[in-house]
Amino acid sequence: MATVHFVGSVALDTPDDVFAAIGEHCGPFLKRVPDGEPGGRRLWISFQVPVLRANPSLAPVGMGLVPLKLADGADPESIHFGELGYAREARPSYQDFVVARSAGRIPQGVRFQVSLPTPYAVVMPFCQQPDARQIFPAYERAMLREVARICAAIPHDDLAIQWDVCVEMLAWDGRWANAPAFPGMEQVFAANFARLGAAVPPRVELGFHLCYGDLDAKHFVEPVDATKMVEMANLIARSVAHPIAWMHMPVPIERTDDAFYAPLKDLRLAAGTELFLGLVHTRDGVDGTKRRIAAAKKVIPVFGIGSECGISRGRDPNLALDFIKTYAGAAAAL
């Protein structure tokens, strides 16, 4: 079992910097490593705003960049998206990864991880309803083509793909006004996840990051406890045919109480699925992380650790390095 998991973004300048820092401090505990999502990807789905704005079938609702709507006269059946940019970014980062691994900065056997937002998480915040539901199928097809291009460019035994599940997680939680629950939500999400899993070839590892958002280093709402994440993880697990290599769940810094972790007893993941709890925080360092580990172990004895979300908070490279070092210290204790 792997010990540490990096969700995706790392506030360092280049993939080379990310591979060097993570390899130096966390090499013995690694199974996968992302490129840090530099440049526009650091802002997660905002990377896709120019792609959406450039589509001739879409038009702005007002004077801002978003939200968008169907352009006057646009036929929803004719919407087409070309490159979204994720495969174009993954190819050179993988080459940097190969160089870092050949030089010994990344251990042999570690996979290159590509983290992608679910199509639902891009379209629903940036397109107004009811148009978003009509735009979604074309965008999903484009994202699945990105997956195919990534898998064509990178050897499957070297590759891991993670779907970042945020807007769905918040809708399932039901307390964030910008992502309301809706009738038939379980069936819609189950079908979406099934298609996302089916797009990943058998030898490519597949994982999911359950996310409560990370705007200005804060969740949009804090999870009351692990209940809703366990429900979402179980929904994904029973909907996706591809073996799921890992599932990641965030843990707020103050949660050392038994009540937060108790719902984990109801988690129903396959035997080969690794659970990662995002309980690494720099504000209380290794000692605080160990307290959260001890609380979780009362319910679930075997798991790996990560941060709540990406480690680009404040776009501060020093904070990212603090996170990486805290990972390493906590992993050694774990």
Q: Tags for this entry?
A:
334 residues; 11 helices; alpha/beta; 10 strands; eight-stranded parallel sheet
Cα radius of gyration in angstroms: 19 Å
Q: Helix content range of the residues, please?
A: 25-40%
What fraction strand?
5-15%
Mean pLDDT rating: 94
Q: Secondary-structure element order, as H and E?
A: EHEHEEHEHHEHHEHEHEHEH
Widest β-sheet, arrangement of strands:
1-10-9-8-7-6-5-2
In terms of structural class, how would the helical and strand content be classed?
alpha/beta
How many E-type strands?
A: 10
Distance separating the two termini: 12 Å
* Unreliable parts: none
Outline: globular
Largest sheet: 8 strands, parallel
Number of helices: 11
Protein architecture, described:
The protein is of the alpha/beta class. The protein has helices at 15-26, 49-53, 86-102, 119-126, 131-153, 167-173, 185-198, 227-239, 258-261, 285-297, 317-333; strands at residues 4-5, 32-34, 58-60, 68-70, 111-117, 159-165, 205-210, 246-250, 274-280, 304-307. The strands form 2 sheets. It has an 8-stranded parallel beta sheet with strand order 1-10-9-8-7-6-5-2. The protein has a two-stranded antiparallel sheet with strand order 3-4. Strand 8 (246-250), helix 9 and strand 9 form a beta-alpha-beta unit. It is globular and about 60 Å long. The model has no long low-confidence stretch (mean pLDDT 94).
